[in-house]
Specification:
With about 290 residues, the protein is an alpha/beta fold. Helix content is about 35%, strand content about 20%. The structure holds flavin mononucleotide.
């Protein structure tokens, strides 16, 4: 299964790209509208992209009223990414989305490096969201947490149905002439090729600690990259930065993935799921009531 990574595709301006996906993931929606950070918000580096968009979005009310009905016309499963500054914010957002039949899953963005961290632990936020919705809940984590495996366990025990791994990691680009930061916020979130081994490690470790379904992302540019995430424990792959340079990536990576798996003797790419774990594949953790 191939999705887009949150914030990396506008399905309303590029519906033909979205239709190549198995589900569309929205940009993170917050309780109130946000204009985002001042420009410059995007910078290139030799190993990927830096962004400091700052969760620009119309806010949940306008999202429900204006954006969601238009997304529904795509006739794709819709996953909504939500972000807030407290467990109550996440619970409110989930309560809103629980009323929307078109929403298949909610992704809790618990790891944006470009805005203030929410108050409350991952466990508190996931538990509050779990109380507020019966939709499938994915916790999106960052590999910047030294012990992402333990954070994933906390999310699983609080009721997450799955994990999205990984979000960007803080990085800095300097203008070569002035040596001043390129982004208005100085630091931003690093995505693209540099994240690839980091994402692979996070997926590997979190599958080992939780056994939960995982959406793997971070620098996926080819079918081989996607297959490696699957072997590490992902059951779904998401495409982010690659979509900015190659809008045809979903179709291309899907066929490369099938070919790459077949070349290794797998009828279906998912036959390689968790293979990197050998016979140590874990049983899924259960929610602590
Ligand atoms: C321009 C841009 C905007 C992003 N916006 C969001 C966002 O709103 N919410 C979120 O959870 N992740 C956001 N991300 C992170 C991506 O969803 C993804 O986790 C990350 O880019 C790693 O995947 P990639 O290396 O394939 O890009 C954004 C990334 C980029 C490059």
């Amino acid at each position: 299964m191939i999705l887009n990574a949150s914030g990396c595709l506008d399905a309303l301006t590029a519906p033909e790209v979205a239709r190549e996906l198995d589900a569309f993931v929205t940009k993170t929606v917050t309780p109130q509208p946000r204009g985002g950070n001042e420009p410059v918000r995007i910078a290139e580096t030799e190993v990927g992209m830096l962004n400091s968009i700052g969760l620009a979005n119309p806010g949940i009310d306008s999202f429900r009223q204006d954006v969601l009905p238009r997304l529904a016309e795509l006739e794709l499963p819709i996953w909504v990414s939500v972000g807030g500054f407290s467990a109550d914010d996440y619970a409110d957002l989930c309560r809103h989305l629980d009323e929307e039949p078109v929403v298949e899953a909610v992704e809790l963005n618990l790891s944006c490096p470009n805005v203030a961290e929410p108050v409350g632990s991952v466990a508190e936020i996931v538990a509050a969201a779990r109380e507020a919705t019966s939709k499938k809940l994915y916790a999106k984590l960052s590999a910047a947490d030294g012990d992402v495996g333990s954070v994933a366990v906390a999310a699983a025990k609080a009721g997450a149905d799955g994990l999205s791994l990984v979000n960007t990691i803080r990085g800095l680009a300097l203008d070569p002439q002035t040596l001043a930061p390129t982004l208005s916020t100085a630091t931003g979130g690093l995505s693209g090729p540099a994240l690839r081994p980091i994402a692979l490690a996070a997926v590997f470790v979190c599958f080992e600690t939780t056994g939960l379904p995982i959406v793997g992302m971070g620098g996926v540019e080819t079918g081989r990259h996607a297959l490696q995430l699957i072997a590490a424990g992902a059951s779904v792959c998401a495409l982010g930065t690659i979509l900015f340079s190659d809008p045809e990536a979903p179709g291309r990576i899907r066929s490369e993935l099938t070919a790459e798996a077949e070349a290794l003797g797998f009828e279906n790419p998912l036959d390689a799921h968790a293979l990197a774990h050998g016979d140590k594949a874990p049983a899924p953790l259960r929610r602590v009531a």
